[in-house]
Amino acid sequence: MPSSALTPLSLASKPTPIQKIRFGDYEIHIKRDDLTGLITSGNKVRKLEFLLADALNKKAKVIVTCGNIQSNHVRATLYLSNILGLKGVAILNGKKPKFPEGNTFLDYLFTDEIYFLNDEEYEKKEEFAENLISKYRSKGIDAYFIPTGGSNGIGCLGYTEAMIEMVDYIKNQGIDALFCAVGSGGTYAGLLIGRYISGLDIPIYGILVDETKEYFLKKITGIIKEAERVLGRKLEIGENEILLIEGYKGSGYAIPYKEEIEIIWKLARRGILLDPVYTGKAFYGMIKEKERLNYTNPLFIHTGGIFSLFGFKEEILKYRIPQKK
After folding, report:
1. Fewer beta carbons under 10 A from the terminal one: N or C of the chain?
2. Which intervals hold domain Tryptophan synthase beta chain-like PALP (predicted)?
3. Does pTM surpass 0.70?
4. Parallel, antiparallel, or unpaired for β 26-32 and 18-23?
């Protein structure tokens, strides 16, 4: 890991394995970051190792974060806050459920302070969070804000570390393309930084599950600039290296569609669970882009999401496919 003033906590089970599966006439390598832990399953814990270390260094007692109502990040943050003896506070985009499911159910187990904001209110989530932090500070309690997905110049270093973890495998296996979902930009930015530091020459494609290419080009560039300040070094990563692919988010963020759900079923029958928010869309996008991108030996970053499956049971069961005999 590149040197910085911040020493990450050890919260994830890593290194995570890389599994090969046969898909049609080629193999796909899958970095199983859904196996970073039980409750911490997924990519968020790698970011939180850095973010919560920073929070503890700053003597925070309360962690405030935000996300969609089925946010993997919020669930992992609340859980790890409890592990570290901190209080977690959640700001969720969505209507308060009568009977919470999936990640939201776990959120209720991990904290008694959850705020549900509608779409208009959620546009001002940072302002809402700052007001909460100010209230805690007025009581003499330091609070720390973690942005959506843990995606900033600190959190992204979790995936700089992950990229460095994969370097030997990528070289030895002749991987010619790397893919991940892009929902808040931190995982993708971290992978780019790790590639730059390690000197690898491999394209990294981000499949958008939210927003637009223009939005994420700006967001990822900003995260890399923040990381430069954290690392205390220049990162010469050009915009032309940020390879973002649109066309696979469907009707919008966290809205599943038939083709991705069919992929979820197919992979489940292989013992790999994808989710309908991130990995289902990203995996579907990867295989659909094969002919255009002309890759032959890809590596897919499985960023987790198992608990959100339980929040989309009706949609997933609607497109159930029969099991092959």
Report:
1. C
2. 10-304
3. yes
4. antiparallel
- Catalogue all structural domains in the chain, each as residue range(s) with its CATH number: 18-39+152-318 (3.40.50.1100), 45-149 (3.40.50.1100)
Amino acid, res. 310: F
Q: For 267-311, what is each residue's pLDDT tens digit?
A: 999 999 999 999 999 999 999 999 999 999 999 999 999 999 999
Rounded distance, CA 1 to CA 200, Å?
Answer: 15
DSSP category for residue 119: H
Angstrom distance (rounded) from CA 291 to CA 129:
44
Element (H, E) at 140: none
Q: Which amino acid is at 56?
A: L
Cα separations in angstroms, 239 against 176, 181, 189, 248? 20, 18, 11, 22
CB half-sphere exposure, 250, CA atoms < 13 A: 17
Positions annotated as catalytic residues are 71
Please choose, from the candidates 213, 189, 186, 179, the residue with its C-alpha nearest in 3D space to the C-alpha of residue 283.
Answer: 179
